[in-house]
Specification:
single chain, mainly alpha, 34% helix, 6% strand
Length: 501
């Protein structure tokens, strides 16, 4: 008996009817089908195993049912589960709480939240949660007015996908030699953050990484540049995010044109418009015409919600051929002990399975791509991108060709379209540049890819990407970043960490 037999026996692994049985490991000597039949017969006589197979998914287990309902709510609405005043900000970290948006400093007052302009210069209390409030006893001037007036305060918002949300499955969960009770200590947090780690991400990260590498983010750099920007961040991303379903996701944006500061919005759906869960993947990729329509709808929505003086940066799609080129013949964490499973095998296995075989505790699955009208449909395959994660070089090239076409649409929009409340820019996704920088530091290209899924940018790639994006903005669009606040040292001396994050 091996893991494949267990997976099929428990009905966690499924594939299209009539297709050969999906397997990752070498079949048992008696054959995979015979081994599965034997395992199922054993299960029929085992009370414990029989009851286990009676559940259709992990969410059917009584102990997890309540948690699953919370996660389903969050998945549908992309808003904090715990938000007492309904201002879209929370004092709870996960379930779309402050790991995703700046932490609320008063969850009982809907007029108090990160990113708003100060109420009466925050003489009596902190209305924008940046930790700066009160009056300087030396001259009677409110600190917010003294340190932040005319400081070009602004927040950062990410509209993105699983890369922006920073999807990560810890390799110690999959590597036999690293498994221990301690290695799973972060499982509850990861589970309630949808296996995403936005608190360490490239755009909105704010905590020191505990998953390798280091944290560097656009938010942290904006905060260092102007400490009045403290806590003004929103990561509005989802696993499977594309230009189409972003039209639904964008509605969870928290920004008031009259009361709030401007924002830098990063629009970055870097792969899911060419990655989908369909067997005929090319036929289901977003077309340039569809991309133009989707992005323009999103930009018109932003123009009606962002305060004047905001900025939008459109990020091009990635060239995902980098994944196969640098991983296909390397051993996956599942195969490192016996040196028997490569990423090529993992990709084929995922491409074979139906998506429900993941049996994760919430729906939709990790890589689903909801539309604006129906946010929770289910794709057919587990593979996050059958167009790139394949031995078929022609298919990989065609997928990259479409990605380039869609990036050209974004570039044309940035060049030709004008909006009332923000200016707009375009930049290529900096994967190649990131690889060059990492090579200079002595690193290898494969280290820039998440080791378990073999698909997403790693923590190292995220941090290096921040540096590249920041340098581009600093040299080409300095007006986007705002000026450096000359009072930063005084803010730190008086307010220390400004209440933390």
């Amino acid at each position: 008996m091996n893991a494949d037999v267990v997976c099929h026996s428990l009905k966690l692994c499924k594939q299209d009817p009539g297709q050969p049985l999906c397997h990752l490991y070498a079949p048992p000597k008696v054959g995979l089908s015979a081994a599965i039949r034997k395992a199922k017969s054993i299960m029929k006589t085992s009370k414990d195993l029989k009851s286990f197979t009676g559940f259709s998914s992990v969410c059917a287990f009584p102990l997890l049912a309540n948690l699953c309902e919370k996660i389903k709510y969050v998945m549908r609405n992309k808003l904090p589960f715990e938000d007492l005043d309904g201002d879209k900000f929370s004092t709870f970290p996960t379930l779309r709480g402050y790991h995703w948006r700046g932490r609320d400093c008063n969850d009982k007052n809907t007029t108090v939240y990160p990113g708003r302009r100060p109420d009466n210069w925050d003489v009596k209390s902190d209305s924008n949660c940046n930790g700066i409030w009160g009056v300087d006893p030396k001259d009677g001037i409110p600190y917010e007015e003294k340190f932040c007036k005319g400081a070009d305060s602004q927040g950062v918002v990410l509209l993105g996908d699983s890369a922006g949300a920073h999807f990560h499955i810890p390799p110690e969960w999959m590597t036999v030699t690293q498994m221990s009770a301690k290695s799973f200590a972060n499982l509850p947090m990861a589970f309630t953050d949808e296996l995403d780690w936005p608190q360490f991400s490239e755009i909105t990260g704010f905590l020191n990484s505990t998953i390798g590498g280091w944290t560097d983010s656009l938010y942290l750099r904006l905060r260092r540049r102007n400490r009045c920007n403290h806590r003004d961040l929103q990561n509005i991303s989802q696993n499977g995010g594309s230009s189409g379903n972003l039209l639904y996701l964008i509605k969870s944006l928290a920004r008031n044109q009259l009361l709030d500061n401007p924002a830098i919005v990063i629009y970055a759906t870097i792969g899911n418009d060419v990655c989908n869960g369909n067997r005929d993947t090319l036929a289901h990729m977003t077309t340039p015409k569809e991309m133009l329509s989707n992005v323009m709808q999103a930009l018109r929505y932003l123009d009606s919600h962002l305060p004047n003086g905001s900025h939008v940066i459109l990020t091009g799609l990635v060239d995902g051929r980098f994944l196969w080129d640098n991983l296909h013949d390397r051993y996956h964490p599942l195969g490192q002990l016996n040196r028997d499973i490569t990423y090529s095998q993992i990709y084929s296995f995922l491409d074979c399975l139906q998506v429900r075989s993941l049996a994760v505790a919430y729906e939709p699955p990790l890589y689903s791509q909801p539309s604006a009208e129906a946010p929770l449909p289910v794709p057919a395959q587990v593979s996050p991108c059958s167009g790139w994660l394949t031995a078929n070089e022609t298919l990989r090239n065609l997928t990259s060709e479409r990605a380039l076409q869609l990036s050209s649409v974004l570039k044309d929009i940035a060049r030709s379209e004008k909006f009332a409340n923000f200016d707009i820019f375009y930049m290529d996704f900096p994967l190649r540049r990131t690889a060059e920088e990492w090579h200079k530091m002595g690193g290898e290209p494969w280290q820039l890819i998440e080791p378990v899924d073999g698909f997403h940018p790693s923590q190292i790639a995220a941090a290096l990407g921040t540096r590249i994006t920041w340098q581009k903005a600093l040299h080409e669009w300095p007006q986007v970043l705002g000026k450096e606040n000359p009072f930063n040292d005084q803010i730190e001396a008086i307010f220390k960490d400004q209440g933390g994050h």
